Every structure is written in C-alpha cells, then in structure tokens.
Sequence to fold (272 residues):
Amino acid sequence: MKKVMFLTLALVSLYANEELREKALSKGLRPIPKDFSTLKSLREQAQGPTQASFEMASTPELIESRVGKNPEYIKAFRKVFGEDEITFDNITKAIAAYEKILVTRSSYDEFLEGNETTLTKEEKRGLNLFIDMGCKACHFGPAVGGQKIQKFPLRAYNSIIDLTTTFDEKTHKRHFSQMHFNTKMYHPFPFKNVGGFLGKNGTCYFRVPILRNISKTAPYFHNGSVKELREVIKMMGKYQLGIDMTKGQLDALEAFLKSLDGKLVEYNLTKK
Ligand code: HEC
Fold:
C-alpha cells in the first residue's frame, strides 16, 4: 500500500514538473544552452564595437599600440599567447574568453532541460508565481530579461485610479483589494532619484534588467537606489503589476530568483 502511495505521489510530482516546464518554455523562458556560443563567434563580435564609427571608432593598429604600452598587459599577453603577444586578433580572443565566463548556467537551466530534482518546492512555487503574476512579460528569454525597454513605475503614479490586487495561487486569479485616487497623478518618479537620470528624455523608460545572478548584483535599479532584493520584488509587484504580495509569495519569488545564481562556465582557451 505504501509503495503504491509513493509511486502515485512520484507520478503526480513528475507530472507537475513537466507541466511547469512546458508552461515556462511556452511563456518565453529559456535555458542557456550548454555550449551557448563558440569562442570564434564571440571574437568576431568583439571586433565590431571596437571599430564601429558610432561606438569606439578605433582601428586595430591603434588598439594594438595602446594595449602594447601597458606593462601589465605586455606581461599577461606574453604569459597566455607566447611571443606573438599583442595582436588585434589576440585582444579580441581575450575579450571573448572573458565574455564567455559572464554567462552562467544554474539549477534553473537544468530544470528547464528536464532534470526533475534541481529546483526545490519553494523555488518551483516562485517560478509559477513569476509566470502567473506576469513578471515574465518583461523579464524573459535565456537571460530572464535584457530584451525590452519598459516604463518604471508602470502603475500607481500614472493613473487617477490605482487598483491594488492580491494574487490567489489556487485559482491563478487576482482579487481586488484596494482602490486609491491619485491626487498627484503626474508624478513621474516617486522614488529616490539618485543621479537624476530618468531614462531617455526623462520618460522613465528603462532597460528591463537581466535577472541572472541577481542575488549577487545589488544594489538594484538603474540608479542603485535599492539594496535589498526582497524590497525590489515587492516594488515590482506593486508598481509593475499592481499586486500586494503575501510574505509566502515574496519568500517563493526570492527563492526562485536565487535559483538563477549560476556556476562559472568551464571554457577551453586554445590557440586557434
Ligand atoms: C512592465 C514590465 C515589468 C514587469 C511586469 C516586471 N518588471 Fe522587474 N523590472 C522592470 C524594469 C523596467 C526594471 C528596471 C527599473 C530601473 O532600472 O529603474 C526592473 C527591475 C527588476 C529587478 C532589479 C534588477 C536589477 O538588476 O536592478 C528585479 C529583481 C525585478 N525587476 C524582478 C521582477 C519580478 C520578480 C517581477 C514580478 C513580480 C517583475 N520584475 C515584473 C520591468 C518589469
């Protein structure tokens, strides 16, 4: 009897995992592939911005001569590349090798690829909330963000009527909880305006940030005005989605965001 129960429970949880994975993939969340990019293509990319007229507008010769004047670089290049040292080709190879370690995979990627055991129950609850509450509408793709420019804050200070809801995880629906009338309707940025930058032409549109390794990259927002991840999640709920989260929902979302913390990618820097 016990065995049957166990098997049933295991099957139910397998099914739930599969359902969650399909939901995440169908809503634009993606794992980072194991070998996400070849060193060669990153190298070719690094050759672009250094030379493009609207970016760094430089030439390979100028770059070689500047890097070649720095004693630290001379030493480091000799150590890695041997005698042919500071060439434009080797410089872009070094940049590409560095960029490659910035992309990290985590237990979340393994879960999306089909591994049942890499996310805890709490992290899976957080992933469900991330999708169902609507965070994924802005933070999506392999980097869980980085692909959109969006207004912040989106709600509350930009309309006369401000509706706040709570989110019911059983029905996946929002329930109306409060309504306020905004007297100061046009209040473009109600938070600490550190540095005075409010997006292009002061429109409060900002790049939706990448959420990979987010627990390690405080302080948050374009101006570094908030230090605690939990506070950011609460603000996102309130100002981007109009949801007042429960403590349990905040815990789950925080646990999920921490599951995006990655392991360093292993890479092989061979001479090509
Ligand atoms: C309407 C689009 C939108 C939605 C929905 C949204 N976000 Fe954001 N998020 C943004 C923007 C834009 C910023 C950057 C604001 C800034 O830089 O001032 C941001 C910033 C963040 C940050 C800080 C990142 C950093 O590096 O500074 C976190 C964490 C975050 N969002 C998590 C969430 C979570 C969790 C949810 C769901 C509860 C969510 N977001 C919903 C657009 C959105």
Remarks:
- The domain at 39-102 is CATH 1.10.760.10 (Cytochrome Bc1 Complex; Chain D, domain 2).
- The mean pLDDT is 88.
- The beta strands are 149-151, 161-168, 173-181, 205-207.
